[in-house]
Amino acid sequence: MKRNRVGEILVSRGKLSPAQLQEALSLQREQKIPIGRVLLNHGLISRRELHFALATQSALRTIVAMITILGGLTTMSSKSFAAGMKDIPQSISVAFTNISAGSMSGAIVRGAPLFGTSERASADLSSFTKWSAMFDRFSSEVNNGSSNEVIQKWKSNLAPLNGLPLSQMANEVNNLMNKVRYIGDQKNWGKSDYWETPVEFLTYGGDCEDFAIAKYASLRALGVPDRAMRIAIVKDLQKGIPHAILIVYTENGPMVLDNQIKRMTEASSISHYKPIYSINRTAWWLHTDGNNSNPTQIASAAR
Known about the structure:
The protein has 303 residues and is of the alpha+beta class. The protein has helices at 5-12, 18-31, 35-41, 47-67, 78-83, 90-95, 129-143, 148-158, 166-177, 185-189, 198-204, 208-221, 295-302; strands at residues 118-122, 229-236, 241-250, 253-257, 265-266, 273-279, 284-288. Helix content is 44%, strand content 14%. Helix 1 (5-12) crosses helix 4 and helix 9 crosses helix 12. It starts with a helix and ends with a helix.
């Protein structure tokens, strides 16, 4: 029998019996529709339970992708980090040629590792295909001129922020992007997980990682260096689901830019997020603590 990850997740959480899953899989083969739709149509699960299972499925796939490159994962020295540096795609610099990089007042303060975890860095981003594919699409959107109206409005909204201190700039970008409509990937794109370009986000709205990406791209366009920012994929311990936020290392320390929290918040004041990994255009970081499972065990459970 073909394994169904969503069904297995629901069974493991006690939301579905093995017999119900078998029946649903038979109906899926007959009706040729997604298993989630079968389960909803027959009242076997709620929409909330389905959304949780889809989010968990996405997180497990991410973990498997990370495990494949753990062999080359090392604590990155300044020299090796510099060797792995890549510029932000040309699309962003082209899109904002009329906005000069404002000077960042004050030194960037990194502080302790994110949310008290240990972290290991790698410049190998090859497994993060959604991240790289998003930038490829963004470059195409800019270069073919089809998104000029959206980009011009974006530039206009960002222009007054140019030259502000980093903490103030980040706060304003957070406020600006949090005004965009939240909409889940399944409803927006018919997929359980889709990483939008900033243009797609500003046009259609998006979910948590799309808010984080748009904030990252906005700050990068205003001259904030990649080393000062990371998108962090975390587990929301209050809701029990994966979530995405942007971390900005400002002159006042690391700040969290989050679509679930109205105001920009000091990372040190947040205790309900457990980071899984963080990423920018130059590297990614695996986050662990004393309670994390062995990576091999995680990979085995996720297969």
